[in-house]
Structure formats: structure tokens, C-alpha cells
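User: My instructor asked us to take a sequence, write out its structure as C-alpha cells, and then describe one feature of it. I'm not sure where to start. Here is the sequence I was given:
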Amino acid sequence: KNTNRITQEEADAYHVLTIVGLVGSIDNDMSSTDITIGAVTSLHRICEAVDSVSTTALSHSRAFVIEVMGRHCGWLALMAGIATGADFVFIPEKPPQEDDWESVMCSVVERHRHLGKRKTVVIVAEGAIDKNLNPIKADHLKDILTNRLGLDTRVTILGHTQRGGAPAFFDRLLATTQSIEAVDAVLESTPETPSPMIGMTDNKVTRFPLMKAVALTHEVAEAIGQKNFARAMELRDPQFAEEYDAYNATTILDDSTIALPEHQQLRVGIVHVGAPAGGMNAATRTAVRYCLNRGHTPIAVSNGFAGLARGVTTEMTWMSVDGWTALGGSELGTNRAVPGEDVDMGLVAYQMQKQNIQALLVVGGFEAYVAIEKLGDAREKYPSLRVPITLIPATISNNVPGTDYSLGSDTSLNAIVNSCDAIVQSAQSSRRRVFVVEVMGGRSGYLAVEGGLAVGAMTVYIPEEGINLSRLQSDVEHLRNMYSHDDPDKSEGRIILRTEDVSKTCTTDVISNILKEEGDEMFDSRTAVLGHIQQGITPSPLDRIRATRLAMRAIKFMEEHTAEALCKA
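Assistant: Let's start with the prediction itself. The C-alpha cells for your sequence are:
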């Protein structure tokens, strides 16, 4: 204004600058939000690297020290430790409290080796420190493992590879939903409104005063500098502390220090029900190891309730589930058989009594819900079924009640996103082409909607909305309009996602043929049915982490209700 470059009216109209913050940080180090854009993708890169390193570590019986990013935040290191089953993790917020922490680490590694592990993986955040604020570096850890334990040890510093690669599904969805909220925040802003930071808390997009969030973030580093590590942990989201405890309870504390009294120790059955889903094995691994650390006897049931009726069970050991975090599908075997419908309830009750199963953990989808309902209804007739029963939802369709996420859904969405990226690339490279991609989900459109958001689909056809001729005609007109405005010298590829059971009449082929016919010379159409590729190969890091938390809570539930029964008795 003082330089006369704008008028007084312009100065009055635009004297307030609206600022809205979206947090992009692979470290996930911003306070007042559970997750930041980029953190999950970085975790994917780390887990891919650790999984690859684990192969050579196993074959050569080596130890690897892996340094990941995180100067003041150990989120990447801790989550990678959980997701890959690392033997030891060092993070800045929670340094080892022992003066001789080197001996503690060696003791843990040595115990694991004596149990039969051929590999050792230690993950260290770049900002890791001891309780006296002395840095803990990868090379020092290597020397300790080499000199004290005689292990052939290597150091791998992942560096900026952690920032690369295609964005994971969750980051694409997070960025999309938060961007919409950011625009709404701008439109609703007034001169008196504090600048907001768009975050995510308990799976809900939130707004939080930006400057307050920045101040709380700085407070973490200050708390660490003052050796107030309890305060540093408080400033992280509540899940962080719970996941740290879960990691310790299933990996570090394998020395009987958290074992229950003998009269409270249980024989816990673990059974998979329904279709395979990423995270089933990770949940089983956590359940088995936490059971063993608490003094329980974990009993794996092969091939679902049909296997239980035949008595196909195995008492699990610590090493029985080694490496299961990275395994997809179901190592125990799973099917859709439901007791009382497909399997004789009497045989299930007989085997429960014969094998003295005192608690049951069921991992699965819709059929698992039905199975637990049937078991509950049969309790009056069969006393052996009157035991604590817990359920961990696991289905790629995420179509079951009582949970925001079921195990396997994130793995499935990453598989869908990766496949659709390749399909879009094909569509753009060849000619103007629209691909109609069929995804799973049964009567739920979750995979189509979430996948469509992540890959930029033109539209999605889902059972919740249905599909009719007027909708198809409208979409054809929309496509024709889009292609008419495209650069004629460029090839644009587009994608449509269709849930498998959206319509018996408007099949994937029918929709594609209609598009092809109506597109005339403007665009072509092809189909792609992803099928069982959507179950994925390696479980995603988020599914592994969710499996760990849920499995530990499931066993705690059993313990609590058993303790209540003992008190009443």
C-alpha cells in the first residue's frame, strides 16, 4: 500500500492472510495429530528394506543394525521394529534406563539366539540416545554385537531411500481427506480464527491451532533435552505408548518377568476363520509370544473350526511363529466353516474339553462373527464353551461392524492401488482408454471407494448406491465431455472401479462394452478383474502393527475375565 502498488480498497479487502497447515513429515513428529502425510509411505520403504535384509541375515546367521530417520521422534523406528519383529529398538523418547544398556541388549539378543534364531535385527533411530543424552549410533551397536557376542554384524543406513517410492494407499487417502478439510477451513476462516493445523485423531480429520501444535512439538525436544522422557512420551499420541508396551511385551520381556501366577495361566486356542487376510499371521505371532511371556499355553488350531472339530491342534513355541509378521495369508489355514452350521457343535465342544482349551481367540471376518454367535448360543448346552472368547476382525473387505479397520483391508488397498497404477500407466501409454476395474468387497463398496480416492478414479460403482441406466448414461456423457476438452495430442487414461456384486446385470464386461460403444472414436474401453491378487503378498506395515495391538488386547481381555471368574469362585 505504501508503495502505491495496490489501492486502499484492495488493502482493506485483503488485509488478513489465511493460513492453514497440512503436515508433511516422514518422521510423524508433529504433536496433536496421530499421523502425518508421508510417514506411512516411509514406513513401507523401511519394512521392505528390513524384510529384504532379514533374508540375507537368516541365510548367513548374521546380525544387522539398521539406522532409520527420526532425530527427535522414534515413530519410524518403533513401528518398523513392531512390523518386522526386530530384536531391539532404540528411540529418542524412551532411551534405555539402565546404565549398562549394552549388556541388556546383548542379553536379549543372546536369549533369542539360544531359542534358535539365526538372525538378529536391531533398529536405531538417527536421534537415539541413552538416559544421559549420549548418542547411540549404529556403528557402536555393531561393535558391541561383534565384540561381545561374536556375531557377524553389518550396518545398513537407509538414508533418503525412506523418502522415495510411490505413495502408500494410506498416505494418498490421508492427503486427500485432509486437503478437503483444509479448503473448508479456508472458506470458514475469519480474521479472528486462529490458523488451524489439519490433523488426524482417532481416525477422524481434525483441526487444531497451528501455533499451539508447533509449540507442543518443540516441547518434545525440550523434554528430551531435560531428560524428562515421561513427558516426551506423553506428548506423543496415546497409541505410541501402547505400541511401545506391546513391542516390549512380545519381544523384549521373554524372561518370565511378566508371567502370571500359575493358577491364572491359561490354555489359549487360536483359530482363523473366513478368507485369508494380511495380518492374520502377525496377530497369531503376537498372541503366541505374549501368551508365552505371561505363562499361558498357546494352542494353534489348523484349518479353522473344521480342524478344531477333528482335533488338529499344536502347542506353539516362541520359534514356531518366528518371522510370521511378514507372512501373508494364513499359516494356520482358514476356511468359512461355522460351528453349528457346517461343523458339528458337539465335536467342537468335545475337543475344547479334551484339550482343556480355557480361552479362544478367533481371527477372521463375517464368518468369525457368526461362529462366535453360535458358540455363545451353545454355551448353555456345552459347559466347555463357557470360556472367554475374543475376536480380531480380519477381512480385506472391511465389511464387519464394531471396528474402523479390519486386518487385511490396508494390505488389500495397497495391492489395488499398485495394480491400478499399472493399469492407468497402460491406459495412458497406448491410446485414450478407460479401464473398468473390478474389485472385491461382496456387498460392501469399501475397497472401491477408498481405492478410487487413492488412484483418482473417475467414478466408482458400489452396492450401497447401486447402478442403473441413467447413471451409466450420465457417466458416459461425463467421459465424453472430459475427453473433448483434453489435449488432442496427448493420450489420457482413466479408470473406473466396480465392486464385484454391485449388479448381476451391469457386469464389468457390460459396462466396458457400453463405454466402448458410446465412446465411438473418442475413447476405447477395457476391463481388468483383480481377483484374489487383492489379498496381497506381504502384509502392509499398518496391518502388522494393528494386528500386534489387537492381539495383545485380546489376550488381556481373556486374562481380565478369567481373573473375574476366579474372584467370584
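For the description part of your assignment, you could build on this observation: The radius of gyration is 27 Å. Try explaining in your own words what that tells you about the chain.
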